[in-house]
Amino acid sequence: MRLEAYWGVGPKTREALTETLGTERAIRAIEGGDVRALTDAGLSRGRATRILRRATGGEGMDTLATSDARAAYKELLDLAVDHAVTDRAADRIRVLTPLTSVDAMEARLDDVLAARGAWESLADDDRETVLEAYARYDDRDGSERAAVEAALALCDSGVETGPFETIADLETDALEAAAAALGALEGENGRVREGADEELDRLRSALGAVEDMDANALQVIEDLRSDGVGDVTAFRDAFEDRLLSETQVTIDQVREAMPTEATDATDFVGGTLRSLRSDLTSAVDEREATVRSDLEATLEDAREAIDRAVGAVDDIAFHLSLARFALAYDCTRPTFRTGDEAAVSVVRATNIALAARGESVQPVTYALGEHGVTGDALEAEGLEAEGDTDAATRIELEARSNPVTEEELPADERVAVLTGANSGGKTTLLETLCQVVLLATMGLPVPADCAEVTPVDALVFHRRHASFNAGVLESTLRSIVPPLSSGGRTLMLVDEFEAITEPGSAADLLHGLVRLTVERDALGVFVTHLADDLEPLPPEARVDGIFAEGLNPDLELLVDYQPRFGTVGRSTPEFIVSRLVANAEDRSERAGFETLGEAVGNDVVQRTLADARWSG
Prior knowledge:
This is DNA mismatch repair protein. By secondary structure, the chain is an alpha/beta fold.
C-alpha cells in the first residue's frame, strides 16, 4: 500500500516517514496507531494524531458531522488524557474514535469497566505501587526493559483481576532474567554495561589502568629512576611490580608483553604498555562478545514472555487510564438501543466539562424517542416497585430539590424544542447529551446513572454563534442540513439558531428544520427563544422548558436546570433587572434600571428583591 493512500499523508509527509522509518515500518505505525513512531519521524503530535484517527477509525470520524461535534469530541479526549498513567496510554486515547459496531462498543466497555472494578478494589498502597511502576516506565521512555520491569512490579502488586489477569501467569523467572539481560545490553555506545560480568569488568579496569599509565609513560620512568633503580634488571623488576599493583594484569601477561630488544627505558616501557593495551583490548572485545552472546541467548529464550509483558503493560495502562477517567466522573455503562425506533435518554446526567472545572453541576434527566427511562432507571436506582407505589413512580435524584417523577418524564417524542431562562443551562444540556452519545459510541462509560443510546450515523451539534450575516447562515445550513438528507440515523443538537439571522426568518427556518428532522425519523433538540413562533409543531415534537426561580441573597440567579417536559420555559428579564437595580452604584444609574423595571413589571421586580432579602 502506498503511504499517500492514507488520509493526511502528502509528498512531504511521505518523504519524512520513509526517510526516518522506511515505507513498511511507517505503514505498520499508521495501521497500529503508533503516535510516537510518527512524532519521532518529525511529524507534530497533532498531525500524527489526525492521520491515525482517520487511518484507524475513519468511518467513525465521519459521524462527527459538524465542527462543534468534532470540538466536543476532542474536548472529551483531552479530559480522558488527563487521567492517563503513561505517555503511550495518552497517545492511544488521543486516537480513539467513535466506533461503528455495537459489538465493538460493548467489547471496549467490558474492558474499561473490568479495569475500573479492578482499580476500585485496590488498596491505596497498591494503587501507589502501580502508578510508581508506570512512572518509572515513562521515565525510561517506554523501552522494552522498562516494560518488563513494569510487568514485574505489577506482578508483585498481587492484583489479578480485570486487565491485570494478563500478567498473572507471566513467567516471572524468565522476565527477571530478561530484565537483567536488557539492562546489561543498555551500556553507552552499545557496549555491555558495567556489572554484567565480573571478568569483563576486570579486563576493562585493567585496560583503563594500562591506558592511563601509557599516557604518563615518561612520568612512570622518572618515578622509577627517582626511587634509585639503576641497572636494567632492577628497572625491569620495579616496572613489573608497578604494573602488577596498579593494573590488575597477571604476571604472565606482563612478561609476555615486555620487549626483548628494547634499546632504552623509554622504548622498554612504551613497548610493554602498547603490547598490553593491544592484548587487553582484544581480551575485552572477545569477552564482551561472549557475554553479549549469552545475554542475547537469554533474551531469545525469554522472547515470548517479553512480548507478552510489553503488550500487557501497554494494554493495562490504556484500559486503566480510561477506567480512572470513568471513575473520576462517576460514569456508568450505557444501554444501546438498536431497534427500528431510535432513542437517547439519560437519568441524572452531568456535564463532564463543567465537572472538570470544579463547577457545581445539577444532574438532569432527559429523553428523546421511545426510551426506557422509567423501568430501567428505577431498576438502576435499586427501587422496589412491589407494594410501594411511590417508590415505583419516582426516580430519586440526589442533591435535587425537584426530582423528576415517572409521571413527569417525557413521552416518546423524537424531537424537542428546548426553551427557557437565559443562563438556564439549555446549552449545557445539549453539550451533556452530545458527551453521552460520543462516549457511548466510543465504547466508554457515560456520566449518568442510567443512559440509553442509539448509535447514530451523523451527530449534528451546533453551538450558538452570534454572527449575524448571510455567510454564516449559509455555512450553518450547509453543515446541518445535508446529514439529515443523507438517509442515515441522525441526532440534531442545535443551539439558538435564531442568533444568525433575523427573528422572523429564523422562526420559519427553525420550524422547517424541526419538520425535516421529524420527516427523516431523526432525533433532535433545538434550543430557542422563539417557541411561540413555531406553532403548530408536528405531533412527533414537543416543547420543554427550563425555569428560573428567583434570586438568592447574593442576587445570583436561581435556576432549576431540570427541564419540565411539555412546558414552554420563559425568559426571566425581571430577575436580571432586579439584580441590576439592587447593584446600581449611583442614583441616576438606579433610576435608569428602575425604568426598565417598570417595563417588565415593577411589582415583580420589587417582589423579587424582597424575596431575595427575606431568604437571606
